[in-house]
Amino acid sequence: MILLSDEVISPKDQKYLNRVTWTLNGNGSVGQHRETSGDKKT
Fold first, then answer.
1. 31-38 — which CB contacts under 8 Å span 24+ positions?
2. What is the pTM of this model?
3. Where are the domains of the chain?
4. Bridge partners of residue 17, in order along the sequence
5. DSSP string spanning 3-33?
6. What pLDDT is attached to residue 41?
7. 40: β partners
8. How high is the pLDDT of residue 38?
9. Whole-angstrom Cα distance, residue 39 to residue 19?
């Protein structure tokens, strides 16, 4: 599952996106990976 944020503007007026990805592992646990991108290619 992937969650992609709307465009966010930082206090320094930089635009970026946040993406969180959850992956089901073989042992039944869930892994979470967070990314931030300023190039809108997340």
1. 38/14
2. 0.69
3. 2-37
4. 37
5. EEPPPEE-TTS-EEEEEEEEEE-TTS-EEEE
6. 57
7. none
8. 86
9. 13
